[in-house]
Amino acid sequence: MDTKLDPWSSNDITDYSKLFEEFGISPFENVLPEIPSPHKYMRRKVIFGHRDYEQIAQAMRTGAPFSVMDGFMPSGKVHLGHKMVMDQIVWHQEQGASAFVGIADREAFSVRGFSWQKCREIGVEEYILSLIAFGFKPDGLIYFQSGCESVKDLAFELGAKVNFSELGAIYGFSGETNLSHMLSVATQAADILQPQLEEYGGPKPVVVPVGPDQDPHLRLTRGLAGKMNMFRVEEREDTKTGRKYLSVRGKAAPAEALKALQKRIPGKVKLYEGHLDVLEYPDRAGLEKIVGEVATEYGGYAFVPPASTYHRFMSGLQGGKMSSSIPDSHIALTDDPKEGAKKVKRAKTGGCVTLEEQKKLGGKPDECSVFELMLFHLLEDDDELLEIREECVAGTRMCGSCKQLAAEKMQEFLKDHQEKRELAREQLGEYRIVYKK
Ligand code: TRP
Ligand code: SF4
What we know:
The protein is α/β, with parallel strands linked by helices and 437 residues long. It has helices at residues 17-23, 40-43, 53-62, 80-94, 105-112, 116-133, 149-159, 164-171, 179-193, 215-228, 255-264, 284-297, 337-346, 355-361, 369-378, 382-394, 399-427; strands at residues 26-27, 47-51, 67-72, 98-103, 141-144, 206-210, 232-237, 244-249, 269-272, 275-278, 307-311, 432-434. A hairpin with a 2-residue loop joins strand 9 and strand 10 (275-278). Residues 349-351, 363-365, 368, 370-371, 392, 397-399, 402 line the site of iron/sulfur cluster.
């Protein structure tokens, strides 16, 4: 029962289904049919969960504005785990999202003690070059948190709505936690809400693709979105008649804003002090839209709670956890391509100790890091992957041939990616990148 998600220590999540019950993350399969052409991570259940992705799927189908937002703490080498996030950012951008990428230098400064200079170097050299190499388009925004005034201002405002007890409950912060670390949490919430500020077109659905370790930030941000908003739409029930109706609550809203709302909403609307009841307007989404417009006009916020997706972590190439401090457990995107191929050949598989045994019993693709590499990264074709899986289980495929295939693909991928990174270096000037002044 005590699954604890901690963004700052490496989690080894063994049972993803727990996250559904304990944190209210929904299984991704539920929204899969609503997505026009799902990414391979979605089809292959690498993305296993989501919050509110329905609104993103809907925006993709209808062409309504939506955003994808993500952040990277500039902590070290960019690796395959980051590739998963970058792939999803680029994919959402291709599906029509406006894209925002924050380099979390405030987090690296306060949690890791990195200097601003070091954050900038790692931010550009590791993360930004790879992001562009994966196809990030120049109309997206890339910024360092400490260079972005609107994020810093919003972080401060958000800070007024969260106290130490809440941070303690969500993150396990104690008396030892430094103030800037807490501020970096507010900053991350500001990262996530920024795409909905007026300068970026106002309220809209935003998706944040993350690993489950980042979920505490999303829970905090979703709560804050509600607390910041000028109005809240609630469903109520008439105690006498049992009839359902919608009520717009806005205790702190200016009286004129409530009056303006009353005028704008069609049908029977009763105005009270601090709220109004909407008796004949069954379309909640339509009502939320009007409410959002009025809030924005009167200088208030109307944040849509951010949506998120959750992907499985890859396991380490030697089994166990993938860790950036164990070079053989992971492949960096800047690893020498030949060295990358060698790591694949040394990786732990789900095969048996002897060939005879494997022919008889078959291998275990679900416990095989080579299969995982093909599933997550190296094979585009679902049928080819399925065939490998079946042959493995049937005992007609031996690990040597998988390793050979995966190693070749890995070498090719790394070589290609590194060439694209060099091109990206030349294209940096064409991108909107906000650096720390
Ligand atoms: N905390 C994230 C990490 O450790 C980085 C991050 C900062 C982030 N802001 C974000 C992630 C906004 C998602 C959305 O890498
Ligand atoms: Fe993994 Fe391939 Fe060996 Fe099966 S045959 S265990 S998929 S390497």
